[in-house]
Amino acid sequence: MKIFPVKSIAEIDQYTIENEPILSINLMERASRRLFDVLDPIYRNRPFVVVAGAGNNGGDALALSRMLLLAGYDTTIVLLKSDCLSTDTALNLERLKHIRQSKVILYQSVEDLPSITSNHVIVDGLFGSGLNRPLEGKALELVQWMNELNVEIVSIDIPSGLMGEDNSGNNPEGIVKARRTFTFQFPKLSFLFPENHKYTGQWEIIDIGLHPEKISEITTSWYFIDRDICRNLLPQRSCFDHKGTMGHTLLIAGSYGKMGAAVLSARACLKSGTGLLTVQVPHDTCQIMHAAVPEAMVNIDRSDLMFTEFPNLSTFSAIGVGPGIGIRSNAVKALDALLDSIGDRPLILDADAINIIAQNPHMKEKLPPGAILTPHPGEFKRLVGEWDNDFERLEKAKEFAAQHKVILVLKGAYTTVVLPSGVCYFNSTGNPGMATAGSGDVLTGIILAMLGRKMDAWKAAVAGVYIHGLAGDIACETEGEEALIASDIISSLGKAFINTK
Ligand SMILES: NC(=O)C1=CN([C@@H]2O[C@H](COP(=O)(O)OP(=O)(O)OC[C@H]3O[C@@H](n4cnc5c(N)ncnc54)[C@H](OP(=O)(O)O)[C@@H]3O)[C@@H](O)[C@H]2O)[C@H](O)CC1
Ligand SMILES: [K+]
């Protein structure tokens, strides 16, 4: 699914009005009706206070209020006083006046506000995608009032005060903290940043039937990785395939005391379809790998403890380095040498491989084009330094990916795949239960298998994060968030692939 900047959404909106064709007031009615249909079963019989602004977000709020009133809901409307209501908002205010029970409070000061019980639901329709500056004055007062009530707030389209994209200069006091946000047609970029979760709460998309032609025509740099995207990226097997055509991957992982990372990554790689897997492990640990992953071949390092050498790379269709290798000087030297001889072979670097590169900046220059790096936030900080907010974090990632021509996979909620071109893919699968030891090692194994099958690096990264998250979601259904461990993600890979194809 595409994610658009809010200014492009206004363009799609306009195109829909002209080409469906549909009157803008009727498009607003359709959006509000679909919102009502979602809210009605969730909040049956609860009293509502609907807070509306002067723009079209307020128009949606007023149309929704009419629907609530007609359905018998106790509904009070608080309208932010303004001299210039949008045309459709003014029309919806007019329509409300025809309903006998409607109570519209024109907000001028705090004394005007209704008393609220804990049973109330507040609907926030003050500002939506037309917001262009931080809130102040009466609008700010209203937001602060809503936030201090400590009752459930439902935001229409966007929590009022939150910008669709960059909130760097915003005033955190002037943003509604919703329990739920029902957003029209597309997720907004700012919803995908961890720091904005406290504003959006749980968010959901409501399809309001914007014109599909315009949606496919307008280009964007941002995508939400859904099943369709992943399915189109995954290669099919032919009946003539054999293990030699499914890729021979090399995984360099583990050190004395950290063999779990290597085992998890190796298992995940095999469960993600690699034809053959060779794992490079320290001498003293080879029995662990043989016993835990009998399907893997083992290349034994001369060191008892760590990664210090690697086999001839020409045999392998893709190489993965990092889980559990440590950052001791011998491992540093070996990674440096590997980067010297890698050529343009597909490569994924994770965990300590990233830490080594962060500590030895000259190695960044040796990264082959298209290499995939999968840092968690701590590793990414070591690579690029601090950031002030998540929008800036994304900018830094785009800069790094462009400069070094690599693909970054920023792990976390909505794991983000950043391509050298600046295109970003945000993952839709996964859950907080996956914040557990070894989860990242599993991802490395999955992506390595895909790279080994000659998938383009960006495709392997995008499909890999989706399958990883989906396997985590499937595992969570039986394990729950607390008990979920990395091995459960591996066990669910089969179902994840089946459900995606
Ligand atoms: N395609 C869709 O998804 C549809 C969306 N709908 C709804 O429409 C809103 C967007 O409506 P819009 O009128 O563009 O925007 P807002 O309701 O957010 O209002 C913006 C107006 O407010 C002014 N503004 C902007 N920032 C501030 C501020 N900080 N303080 C005060 N006023 C502000 C701005 O005017 P200015 O001239 O003052 O700049 C705007 O006029 C969308 O979110 C949906 O809810 C449709 O109903 C259906 C289709
Ligand atoms: K809103």
From TrEMBL:
EC number(s) recorded for this UniProt protein = 4.2.1.136, 5.1.99.6
SUPFAM superfamilies in alphabetical order: Ribokinase-like, YjeF N-terminal domain-like
Residues noted as binding AMP in the record, renumbered to the chain? K411, G412, A413, Y414, T415, G440
Provide the residue positions that the database annotates as binding K(+).
N57, D124, S160
Co-factor binding comment: Binds 1 potassium ion per subunit.
Catalyses: (6S)-NADHX + ADP = AMP + phosphate + NADH + H(+); (6R)-NADHX = (6S)-NADHX; (6S)-NADPHX + ADP = AMP + phosphate + NADPH + H(+); (6R)-NADPHX = (6S)-NADPHX
| Cofactors named for this entry | K(+); Mg(2+)
Q: Where does (6S)-NADPHX bind?
A: 56-60, 128-134, 157, 261, 324, 376, 441
GO terms assigned for molecular function = ADP-dependent NAD(P)H-hydrate dehydratase activity; ATP binding; metal ion binding; NAD(P)HX epimerase activity
The record's keywords, sorted A to Z, are:
ATP-binding, Isomerase, Lyase, Metal-binding, Multifunctional enzyme, NAD, NADP, Nucleotide-binding, Potassium
Domain (YjeF C-terminal) ranges: 226-500
YjeF N-terminal domain segment(s): 9-216
Q: Which domain of life is it from?
A: Bacteria
Its BP terms in the Gene Ontology are: metabolite repair; nicotinamide nucleotide metabolic process
Free-text function comment from the UniProt entry: Bifunctional enzyme that catalyzes the epimerization of the S- and R-forms of NAD(P)HX and the dehydration of the S-form of NAD(P)HX at the expense of ADP, which is converted to AMP. This allows the repair of both epimers of NAD(P)HX, a damaged form of NAD(P)H that is a result of enzymatic or heat-dependent hydration.
- Subunit structure, as described in the record: Homotetramer.
**UniProt record similarity statement:** Belongs to the NnrE/AIBP family. In the N-terminal section; belongs to the NnrE/AIBP family.
Query: Cross-referenced PANTHER family, in alphabetical order?
Result: ATP-DEPENDENT (S)-NAD(P)H-HYDRATE DEHYDRATASE, ATP-DEPENDENT (S)-NAD(P)H-HYDRATE DEHYDRATASE FAMILY MEMBER
Q: By what name is this protein known?
A: Bifunctional NAD(P)H-hydrate repair enzyme
